[in-house]
């Protein structure tokens, strides 16, 4: 898979480690920043990732900030983006199985790195269930 990834300063450490993890698993990774620990504004990076996923430049995305909410709120302004916030593996599974989330968002300040890796693995491996869930997704876009 070609996966885009972004974070703000709060998610930088996990993003850096997840890039190495994903490359080690054979994925292509496109890093949309930030690459600095200086305080920054999450929309600057979320929009770059959102554009890339929406245009098909990457297959899917991963975003991290402190709570995950800033990234999720910003990404979900992009047509075609379904950014799902997850904080355990069950939610990471359901956000793909039921919501077909094309961006996985995680709250770096509230989950361990080990949990973040397990969520990424679960979300990548899970298939969208379709059926009634597709009908519901079809009703989302305004
Ligand atoms: C940064 O302090 C924090 O506000 C940000 O990472 C995120 O949690 C926003 O939603």
UniProtKB/TrEMBL annotation:
The active site is at 65 (proton acceptor), 98 (proton donor). Keywords: Isomerase. GO terms for molecular function: ribose-5-phosphate isomerase activity. One of its GO terms (biological process) is pentose-phosphate shunt, non-oxidative branch. The keyword Cell wall biogenesis/degradation does not apply. D-ribulose 5-phosphate binds at residues 8-9, 66-70, 99, 109, 132, 136. Signal peptide: none annotated. It is an enzyme of class 5 (isomerase). It holds the Pfam family LacAB_rpiB. Gene3D superfamilies: Sugar-phosphate isomerase, RpiB/LacA/LacB. Its EC number is 5.3.1.6. It comes from the Bacteria. Belongs to the LacAB/RpiB family. This is Ribose 5-phosphate isomerase B. It comes from Candidatus Cryptobacteroides avistercoris. The gene is rpiB.
């Amino acid at each position: 898979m070609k996966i885009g990834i972004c974070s703000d300063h709060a998610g930088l450490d996990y993003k850096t480690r997840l890039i190495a993890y994903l490359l080690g698993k054979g994925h292509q990774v496109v890093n949309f920043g930030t690459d600095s620990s200086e305080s920054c504004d999450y929309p600057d990076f979320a929009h770059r990732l959102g554009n890339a996923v929406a245009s098909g430049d990457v297959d899917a995305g991963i975003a991290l900030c402190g709570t995950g909410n800033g990234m999720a709120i910003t990404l979900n302004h992009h047509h075609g983006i379904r950014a799902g916030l997850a904080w355990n593996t069950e939610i990471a599974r359901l956000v793909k199985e039921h919501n077909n989330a094309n961006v996985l968002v995680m709250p770096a300040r509230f989950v361990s790195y080990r949990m973040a890796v397990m969520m990424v693995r679960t979300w990548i491996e899970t298939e969208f269930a379709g059926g009634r869930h597709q009908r519901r997704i079809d009703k989302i876009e305004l």
